[in-house]
Amino acid sequence: MTSLQHPSTKEDILRYLLKQGEATAQVLADQLGVSSQAIRRHLKDLELDGLIEHRAIQEGMGRPNYVYQLSRKGRDHFPDQYDEFALSLLDTLAETVGQEQVGTILRKQWTRKAKDYRQQVGSGSLEERVSRLVELRKNEGYMAEWHRLEPEDQPGASPRFVIAEYNCAISHIAESFPTVCGHELEMFEVALPDCSVTRTHWLANGEHRCGYMIEPKQ
Q1: Which residues, in sequence order, are CB contacts of 144 under 8 Å at separation 6+?
Q2: CA-CA 20 to 30 A from 210: which of 17, 29, 174, 196?
């Protein structure tokens, strides 16, 4: 494949698009410190490989600008611990015992995983526990990160945290069994029992990341 000729810059492009959702060639050049000419060559190669796609946006009377984003194949390029065998197994189970029974099995599996998260996250400040939870997600194939949100105009208020996941390690499973996304939200609530967890972004809704707001319970 042509994308193997310059793996570092091309990987940087793919990772940037994974995190930001989309970008123009000029933005990529500025952010990655690469010439516009070189970036356009890499983009052409990546598009030929089917890893990215573009759409044209018209700004003013000049030539249209092109905005690039990952294709489905591009998203599949990133680590995925839950492979096609897992999805095939679930499909077979659904055909054998029924969709409802598979849902019960998945809930039991995620309940077990939630308890494991709770144990590994342990105790400590909320910031420490959020950091440990994100590390666990990274080890499972998610491109996860967290941010602290300082309270505005509320002296003494507890900080909030946002967890962002740009790569879903169970995306193929979630497409066929969307209830697993709800189980993931429940896992975070079990891992952080003194917090409320709400979803802010969702890959399944076409957004470029999954996002969760972590807030201490009042």
Answers
A1: 134, 137, 138, 163, 164, 165, 166
A2: 29
Number of residues in the chain? 218
Q: 89 and 63, same structural domain? A: no
Closest CA to 177 of 112, 81, 82: 82
Q: How many angstroms separate the CA atoms of 57 and 141, rounded?
A: 33
Asked whether residue 104 falls in the same domain as residue 152, the answer is: yes
Type of residue numbered 11: E
Which of 45, 76, 107 is a domain's end point? 76
Containing structural domain, residue 179: 84-216
Cα–Cα nearest to 68, from 97, 45, 91: 45
Could you give the angle at the alpha carbon of 135 between the alpha carbons of 213 and 199, nearest 5°?
Answer: 20
Instruction: List, for residues 125-149, the tens digit of each pLDDT value.
Output: 999 999 999 999 988 878 899 999 8
CA–chain centroid gap for 78, Å, is 10
Model confidence pLDDT, tens digit, residues 181-208: 777 888 899 999 999 999 998 776 777 7
